[in-house]
Design brief:
single chain, two-stranded antiparallel sheet, 6 helices, alpha+beta
Length: 195
């Protein structure tokens, strides 16, 4: 019998080198797996690129994913929704739909603005914050950053007709008074009065 006649009968092929085939593992050893497990239990915020075990980030990620079954969860900062927020959101949505119905060019004249804060000392950037935890069990993030770090606050807006308003740079922290001053001096006097 030749191989071509055996294969259709058994519908499989046998690997006689089972267990010895492939490249030998040099990094995913029991010692490294135990070291990474201990490291993550001590500090779940450790960086895969700058790990103290001195193995490559790809091997670090392979060990955490396949051997430990842990995942690097990313922190997402969101506003907390409260119980009394739902009626106000529904009321705003109803007002918005009614306004669009009554005034057909409302969306063309609508101006949407937002502000953002950029840290100047690069100490805390939530984009780079990861916390390892078992897969399927995301952690409760408790990340302490330097609250008094220097920031740059910027506000910008866009109009429904495609005009982008130039950004406004706040001096210091954004407070209610600073925001109202920006709306009055920058937004209303420089932009709305020019339309």
């Amino acid at each position: 019998m030749n191989l071509l006649s055996i294969f259709p009968i058994l519908c499989t092929s046998l690997n006689l080198n089972n267990g010895d085939s492939g490249r030998r593992r040099t990094t995913r050893t029991d010692e490294n797996i135990a070291a990474i497990r201990a490291l993550l239990e001590e500090n779940p915020h450790v960086s895969a690129r700058r790990n103290p075990i001195d193995i490559s980030s790809s091997n670090f990620n392979r060990i955490t994913k396949f051997e430990l079954r842990w995942h690097p969860y990313k922190m997402h900062v969101r506003h907390q929704l409260l119980l009394n927020d739902l009626p106000r959101r529904i009321q705003f949505a109803e007002w918005f739909v009614e306004r669009c119905r009554r005034c057909p060019n409302f969306l063309e004249n609508l101006i949407v603005g937002d502000e953002a804060a950029f840290a100047m000392n690069r100490k805390v950037c939530t984009h780079n914050v990861r916390q390892y935890a078992p897969t399927g069990h995301p952690p409760e993030f408790n990340f302490k950053g330097n609250v008094s770090r220097e920031k740059l606050h910027i506000w910008a807006a866009t109009c429904g007709n495609g005009v982008i308003l130039r950004p406004y740079f706040f001096d210091g922290n954004v407070t209610g008074i600073a925001y109202l001053r920006m709306l009055d001096e920058f937004f209303y006097r420089k932009w709305l009065c020019s339309f």
